[in-house]
């Protein structure tokens, strides 16, 4: 997000927190996407969200790329789904951006390249920029339509092209993480959802129907990078564990080189207009956008990014107490990246990084320990 986009985001949240929000329970129905009820849990006293805008307004668009295509092509989904460039027997990765963004954002392009360098796969990039470039609350409501659009496409690939649900890996950043949760809730057997710092405002501590949850796929892994309270710290990411695996990177709340020497303390929403634009931008963007960059680094290397189980009794703000030890076993370490599902450990994992790409801090001891475990398993 650039500076003007951050301001629009903040203004949307200010409006959302003003008293007198209008609550309405209406139902909107669209051919092939179904009906969208705007009652509880989508819209209620503690979550006064509007109805989503129409599919035509949001204009969800798909692009496909694979090793043969070299560059992404428009993937037709209306009125019919064109699968001429889709390889049904190859794994599929679907990527979606978050608030006030689009499918040309650097992380989506870099993540696509990283995936295709490692996997002979289909990559579908989803663009909902026309639905995301509005105030935050409306954009957060619009993600229901985007989730339904992706669900429709994936169901078609499974039901008519004989694709396997277990070959789909869904990845979304911020609001995009919750978009992918809606796909997983409506399609049984999705292999994996990777949630890249899922959006907090309007989702944390809310009904699992509206947010990412570990029941949404066979494996749900979360990368937390900006998990601090929105008030007073302007945190944009969820602070709590919601997946099978939750990576809390550098404590999960503030990333290296994203710190400010003079941090404002926000007592209420009313304090936000008093903060300078540069400070507001750095607070609201830097750590939140680090999550997809960590995923890219984990895939590309040059070293492995291990997560170490931490003691849940400590607050996530007490990062110095996070890591119990760095002795890796099957149950104490997990690996960030495309191969996370190959490791059986589940729970909360701490990870340290540097402040610049490629971020990873080499740990040869853990590499050797886990390699020995892998070799022992291969012999059995």
TrEMBL record:
- A GO biological process this protein is involved in? lipid catabolic process
Write out the entry's keywords from A to Z. Disulfide bond, Hydrolase, Secreted, Signal
Q: What is its main location?
A: secreted
A single Gene Ontology CC annotation of this entry is:
extracellular space
Against InterPro entries, the record matches this protein to: AB_hydrolase_fold, Lipase, Lipase_N, Lipase_panc, TAG_lipase
Q: Where is the signal peptide?
A: 1-24
GO function terms (MF aspect): phospholipase A1 activity; triacylglycerol lipase activity
CDD domains attached to this UniProt entry: Pancreat_lipase_like
| Residues annotated as domain Lipase | 28-345
According to its UniProt record, which reaction does this protein catalyse?
A: a 1,2-diacyl-sn-glycero-3-phosphocholine + H2O = a 2-acyl-sn-glycero-3-phosphocholine + a fatty acid + H(+)
**EC number per UniProt:** 3.1.1.32
Under the heading Gene3D superfamilies, the entry gives: alpha/beta hydrolase
- The EC class name is hydrolase
Protein localization: Secreted
Instruction: Please report which protein family the annotation says this sequence is part of.
Output: Belongs to the AB hydrolase superfamily. Lipase family.
List the protein's name.
phospholipase A1
Q: Which organism is it from?
A: Vespula vulgaris (Yellow jacket)
**What is this organism's lineage?**
Eukaryota, Metazoa, Ecdysozoa, Arthropoda, Hexapoda
């Amino acid at each position: 997000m650039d500076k003007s986009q951050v301001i629009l985001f903040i203004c949307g949240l200010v409006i959302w927190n003003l008293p007198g929000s209008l609550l309405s329970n209406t139902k909107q129905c669209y051919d092939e996407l179904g009906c969208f009820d705007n009652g509880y849990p989508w819209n209620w006293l503690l979550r006064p969200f509007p109805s989503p805008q129409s599919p035509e307004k949001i204009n969800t668009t798909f692009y496909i790329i694979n090793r043969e295509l070299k560059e992404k092509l428009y993937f037709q989904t209306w009125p019919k789904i064109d699968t001429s460039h889709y390889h049904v027997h190859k794994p599929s990765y679907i990527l979606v951006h978050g608030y006030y963004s689009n499918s040309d954002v650097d992380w989506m392009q870099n993540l696509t390249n990283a995936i295709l360098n490692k996997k002979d796969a289909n990559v579908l990039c989803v663009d909902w920029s026309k639905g995301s470039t509005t105030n935050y609350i409306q954009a957060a409501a619009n993600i229901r339509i985007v989730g339904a659009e992706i669900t429709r496409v994936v169901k078609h690939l499974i039901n008519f092209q004989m694709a396997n649900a277990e070959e789909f890996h869904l990845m979304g950043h911020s609001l995009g993480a919750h978009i992918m949760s809606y796909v997983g809730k409506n399609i049984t057997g999705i292999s994996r959802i990777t949630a890249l710092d899922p959006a907090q405002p309007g989702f944390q501590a809310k009904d699992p129907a509206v947010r990412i949850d570990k029941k949404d796929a066979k494996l749900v892994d979360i990368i937390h990078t900006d998990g601090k309270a929105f008030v007073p710290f302007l945190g944009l990411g969820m602070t709590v564990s919601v997946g099978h695996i939750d990576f809390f990177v550098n404590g999960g709340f503030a990333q290296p080189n994203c710190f400010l020497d003079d941090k404002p303390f926000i007592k209420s929403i009313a304090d936000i207009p008093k903060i300078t634009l540069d400070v507001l931008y750095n607070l609201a963007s830097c750590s939140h956008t680090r999550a997809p960059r960590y995923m890219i680094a984990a895939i590309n290397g040059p070293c492995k990014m291990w997560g170490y189980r931490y003691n849940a009794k400590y607050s996530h703000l007490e990062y110095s107490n996070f890591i119990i030890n760095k002795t890796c076993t099957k149950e104490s370490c997990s690996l960030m990246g495309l191969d996370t599902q190959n490791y059986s450990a589940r729970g909360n994992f701490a990870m340290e990084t540097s402040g610049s790409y490629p971020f990873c801090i080499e740990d040869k001891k853990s590499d050797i320990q886990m390699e020995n475990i892998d070799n022992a398993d291969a012999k059995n």
